[in-house]
Amino acid sequence: MVIGMKKKQIKKCKVFLYNKNAFSLVEIMVVSATFVIVALGVFNALAGGRRAYEVSAVQIDLHFQTRKAMRALTQELSQAGVSSVNINASNDQIIFKVPVSFSAGTIAWSANIQYFLGGINGEELMRIDTATGQTQVLAQHINTLFFSQPSVDIIEIGLLAAKQSRQGDNLQMQLVSQVALRNR
To answer: Is 68 within the bounds of a domain?
Structure first.
């Protein structure tokens, strides 16, 4: 009998050591490693999505500023008189006049209107009306402003805008447009 009892005790010990109701250390380590890998994958996906969102927001702002600047320039410059347009030697400023009234076959012209880069870090498109002295900031993040006159009644405008995202990505947008001067 003593031998039989020892066998029972040995069985109890084996059952205790190999109880399937508990997890082994290897199983816990495998599950933990799998969880860490999945968590890192989710974190990387979320971080990439956040970065893409922030870059997109900067890109949208840059596109908005550039198009806003070009729209302001083309709308007003298309009304300019051919003889009143003056582009400076470095091709980065333009001065012109627009008609304010028309009577008895005569056009009354405005005071000079000037567009140039200035303001914060020289990256704002500025408009000055010399009659009133009123200065407006039309757009920001404009790095380069370029004017040329390929023919007497055509003005070419070039804009280059740049902005840096929080992550350090340098984003740029360039627009080029030609404006036909309609008033002689």
So the answer is: yes
